[in-house]
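As a next step, we paired sequence with structure tokens, yielding the entry below.
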Amino acid sequence: MKNIFAVLVLCCLFIVCGQSKVYAFDITVGATTWYSWWDLEQKRQSYNIDPTFLYGPALSVRLNDDFNLTFVFLYGKFDMEESHWDNSTPPVKEFQKFKLKRYDSDLALNYRLNEYFKVFAGVKYINYSFATGGHMEHTGFGPGLGLSCAFPIVDNLFLLGTLSGFYLWAEEEDDGKNGRSSRDSKDYGINSNLSLAYYIAQASTTVSLGGRFQYMKIDKDKRNDNDSGNQTAKFYGVTLTATYTFGF
């Protein structure tokens, strides 16, 4: 199913690009960062995660007057402390500290509805992993759909916003003390951004400052009757982006 979905996305992109070959392209490149807090909840376990910076490239290609393609990639390392109750009698609370790597990527095709609103559809990729007495990695990939807006405030100052939902097919692999195991999950949630953007016309540069919130439900296959199989994750924080636009 995931492979079929990826092929359909690529076919749509080729069709749009093929219809856009008579147009001049505008390309926007830059960098973005997100100072993010991460709240993670799971039955019988608790997590204390320090906020950190995620950072990476941002790219946009205007294909024609109505379509543009956007890509954003973020990477960061979180300091995490995990605590859980073991199965002894009486139960004993155990603690572990580790570095958690997180990747977050979005590729979307945008369609302009009018001068203020766009709809977009694309694919989302999420990966996070850590190593402490073993290795755990969670990887998800799937479709997303949303709405974005841009409202002029004064001169070259704009209010930007997006709201989207996503559904990911995911797999979690764990090389722990009990050996290697894996299980599938369904990850779904919402993503929202709100920011102020200022366009510096002399430098063809846009700088934006705002906030981002992401909620994700992780519905894992159960390993046993005592395993809820579920996690909820909330990511929120401040974003800063700078991009440069040129055409050919």
About this structure: The longest helix spans residues 2-19. The radius of gyration is 21 Å.
